[in-house]
Amino acid sequence: MPQKLKNSDINLFCIGEMGFIIMMLLAVNYYAYFLTDVALIGAATVGTILLIARIADAVSVPITGCIIEKIDLKWGRYRSWILAAPPFIAVFFILMFTNPDVNVVTKAVLLGTFYVLGHVSVNLAGSAYVALIPVLATDQTDRVKLSSRRAQANAGAQIIFGLIAMPLILALGAGNEGRGFFLTIIIFATLQLLGYLLVARITKPFVAGRQTEGKKDAITVKDMFAQIFSNSPLLVLLLAEMFRMTTMFVLMGFGVYYFKYVAHNMLMVTAFFTSLSAAALVGAVTGQFIANKFTKKKTYILGMVVAVLSLSAAWLVAKETLVFIIFCSLAMLGINIVQAMQAAMYADTAEYSEWKTGKNVGGLIMALSALPIKIGVAVSGAVTGFGLAAAGYVANAKPTAELASAISTLATLVPALFAVLAIVGILFYSLSEEKVNQMRLEIQTRNGEFPLT
């Protein structure tokens, strides 16, 4: 196994996920619209479909983590699922954007089923992808670099998606939105497939001979979940990440309402989201440099402090649209300074689990990194709905001064509160760089391996 990661391996590994991110963004941002305006399914039914599908998606996260941990196929541990799952992802995501000529109930059931199957397949490949991070990056410097480059690549994918998605839909559809979405998802699903093939090629030398690893000491599902609940750094990180993800999704979720009812300028929505994406990229780059100077925990706290201060400032200048966008973008920068550390911190908690128990369930632990995202989406949706209801919101009605003020508060101070909770949570995170290095040496000694140099 290579002892030190090459920059080219790190870059190609991260670039390989960009096609997947672009494909997922189409589903995240446009699937509800596709269901209502293209498939012509009622809004209430669409809400039910997405609610059931998101619950199934969240429940499948630990299940798929167990699957990739327990089942080793012939192409290498974790890597096998990078090869096996993406073709199913492509098929089900393409089927998600079809409009079958059947009655509405049957159509709703079919598209909802495709959504669930597609996202279960996504969780298999995604869990395997993040499980490979601690396999590739055993050195702390490499781990931070890989984590931050991944965040940079994801932010870059968001910018690319914003630039090409709608033009592709319109150009390929030529007046037929259904055809535009269908042809666009074929392109994006193909990019996802090619990207994961690149990841599989890059990771092959790192997993050679590892598919039988751990067979001597079979790990039961009971063992896996016992290790999760005895892993206090992991539980702390999951809680803090749930608050951080909620911060980001609440900020983004209220953007449209702010520009319609406070700024009275819907044309600025595009500028708002483009600015947030650019800030996310800058934050991911900045996070790597900060982490090289400080610890991951201090970097996490610093990023969320920037978010709190920026969101508070955005609340103070809410009536100044351009300044509001600038401060919201600074908040996104702070959130993504942390994003640069995310995968590295989960990898550290996986190492803590192996050090404490002598059993490696890194695949399951890394898979759980998706759980705060799914919880954050659900919580932010509830915050948006209940917050607007409490403010007396009526769709398309002329806003009162009180409603405009309430939306400004909901868009800024509420996510700032979740950012504060993330800071409080991460204060209890106990893994330092020195402790992780010591744990790794003890694991290598226990396993009869030579320490990496």
Report on the architecture of this protein.
With about 450 residues, this protein is mainly alpha-helical. The chain has two domains: about 1-215, Growth Hormone, Chain: A (Up-down Bundle), CATH 1.20.1250.20; about 215-453, MFS general substrate transporter like domains (Growth Hormone, Chain: A), CATH 1.20.1250. About 80% of the residues lie in helices and about 0% in strands. It contains 17 helices and no strands. Helix 4 (about 80-95) packs antiparallel against helix 5. The radius of gyration is 22 Å and the shape is globular. The two termini are about 15 Å apart. Mean pLDDT is about 85; it is low at about 210-215.
The fold-level CATH name of the largest domain is Growth Hormone, Chain: A
Q: Number of DSSP helices?
A: 17
User: Between the first and last Cα atoms, what is the distance in angstroms?
Assistant: 13 Å
CATH architecture field of the largest domain: Up-down Bundle
Radius of gyration: 22 Å
Helix content: over 70%
Q: How many strand segments? A: 0
Set down the secondary structure blueprint.
Blueprint: H1 7-15, H2 18-38, H3 43-70, H4 79-96, H5 104-136, H6 140-173, H7 177-207, H8 221-229, H9 232-253, H10 255-261, H11 268-293, H12 296-316, H13 321-357, H14 362-367, H15 371-390, H16 401-426, H17 433-446
Helix pairs in contact: 1-6, 1-7, 2-6, 2-7, 3-5, 3-15, 4-5, 4-7, 5-7, 5-13, 6-7, 6-11, 6-13, 9-13, 9-15, 9-16, 10-16, 11-13, 12-13, 12-16, 13-17
